[in-house]
């Protein structure tokens, strides 16, 4: 069966060029970067080169880039590292209800260690109001963590404004930009970002590799203790193939941002306009202007989103519902509930996220399949 993949917010395939750049570092060039012989020392140079490339693209300093095992680790490293190092200055953190669980559960962890967390509610379109961020700041606030773009509804947050507020009040500002990198032009200096998380596998790079950018002025504590790697801030032998892969993936993404966005937008807008024509009683979730080009999240009232995902899967179509099934219970998406959607509508959502290999023909097949499946599900 032909697989048609529309779940690029979950993960992406590794680009051929990225894969080819990585392969030598699994075999011939396997040296440990901390070793003193050439195949080791050469890899130290390879890592430095990757770090330089990444710093140039993101517009930050080379010594502000740390390699991690992914978006989840970067979020943990930054939020816990800042919180524990700055506890004597205050114990208050501001975040939002629509963050990824890597941020939400890290904040909940910190609450068990005496930190107080404010979880801001977005408006009904899934956007955080910078004025709400400002109002939430107290003299105990040490960190604001608001995501760049949401993984379920694709909404892009006003990070520049939030960064400006954070700067004005002398509070650190972190943004989980896992969904934005590879889709949006990120300029750390211009956006007043002081810490940011990146994951390789969301933009055609490998899984298990991530980046944490942490401004050199930030006081933070090492969370992963071990060897002296990453300037004593993150112990563990470096993932050399992963580091080579993520820097190559970022380079490719950065060079193709305009055409990539044009492609995604064309497919996404076609998809949404056809859905609106073909299927009654739907609701498009999330702001349509401040939004990632490839994201469409739509509620089809009266149906179960997970059932729709399963019916589409039978036709080789990969999508996502946003609802998590655990221990036999279906939990509606925390993001859709946070934007004020009633439970029954939140449960009927389907997230489609387009990527570079998708075509108009694939999208037509997707549309026909959704139309047919929704009709069947609404009759049951
Ligand atoms: C995927 C994702 C993460 C987690 O990244 P991993 O590399 O899979 O650990 C964190 N935040 C957001 C917004 C994501 O989409």
The strands making up the biggest β-sheet line up spatially as 2-8-7-6-5-3-4
- What is the oligomer described by this structure? single chain
How would the global form be characterised? globular
The share of residues in helices is 25-40%
Query: Any idea what the CATH architecture of the largest domain is?
Result: 3-Layer(aba) Sandwich
What small molecules accompany the polymer chains? Answer: pyridoxal-5'-phosphate
Helical/strand content category: alpha/beta
The major sheet is characterized as:
7 strands, mixed
Distance between the termini: 27 Å
Report the mean per-residue pLDDT as an integer. 97
Total strands: the figure is 14
CATH homologous superfamily label of the largest domain: Type I PLP-dependent aspartate aminotransferase-like (Major domain)
**Helix count, DSSP H or I runs of 4 or more residues:** 12
Indicate the radius of gyration in whole angstroms. 21 Å
């Amino acid at each position: 069966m032909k697989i048609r993949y529309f779940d690029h917010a979950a993960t992406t395939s590794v680009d051929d060029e990225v894969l080819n750049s990585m392969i030598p570092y699994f075999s011939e060039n396997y040296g440990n970067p901390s070793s003193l012989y050439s195949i080791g020392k050469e890899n130290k140079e390879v890592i430095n080169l990757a770090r330089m490339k990444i710093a140039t693209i993101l517009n930050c300093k080379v010594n502000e880039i740390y390699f991690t095992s992914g978006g989840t680790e970067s979020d943990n490293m930054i939020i816990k590292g800042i919180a524990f190092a700055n506890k004597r200055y205050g114990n208050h953190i501001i975040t939002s209800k629509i963050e990824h669980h890597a941020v939400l559960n890290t904040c909940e962890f910190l609450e068990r260690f005496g930190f107080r967390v404010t979880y801001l509610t977005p408006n009904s379109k899934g956007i955080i109001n910078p004025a709400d961020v400002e109002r939430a700041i107290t003299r105990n606030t040490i960190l604001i963590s608001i995501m760049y773009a949401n993984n379920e509804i694709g909404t892009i947050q006003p990070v520049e404004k939030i960064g400006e507020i954070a700067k004005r009040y002398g509070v650190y500002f972190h943004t989980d930009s896992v969904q934005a990198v590879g889709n949006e032009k990120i300029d750390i200096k211009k956006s007043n970002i002081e810490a940011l998380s990146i994951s390789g596998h969301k933009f055609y790079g490998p899984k298990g590799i991530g980046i944490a950018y942490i401004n050199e002025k930030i006081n933070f504590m090492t969370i992963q203790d071990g060897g002296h790697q990453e300037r004593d801030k993150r112990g563990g032998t470096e993932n050399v193939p992963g580091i080579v892969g993520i820097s190559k993936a970022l380079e490719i993404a950065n060079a193709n941002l305009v055409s990539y966005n044009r492609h995604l937008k064309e497919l996404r807008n076609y998809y949404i306009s056809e859905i609106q024509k073909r299927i009654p009683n739907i609701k498009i979730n999330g702001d349509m202007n401040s939004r990632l080009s490839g994201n469409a999240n739509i509620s089809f009232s009266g149906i179960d989103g997970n059932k729709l995902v399963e019916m589409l899967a039978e036709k080789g179509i990969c999508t996502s519902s946003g609802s998590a099934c655990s221990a036999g219970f279906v939990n509606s998406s925390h993001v859709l509930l946070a934007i004020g959607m009633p439970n029954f509508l939140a449960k009927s959502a389907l997230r489609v996220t387009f990527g570079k290999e998708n075509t108009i023909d694939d999208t037509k097949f997707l549309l026909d399949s959704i139309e047919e499946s929704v009709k069947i599900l609404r009759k049951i």
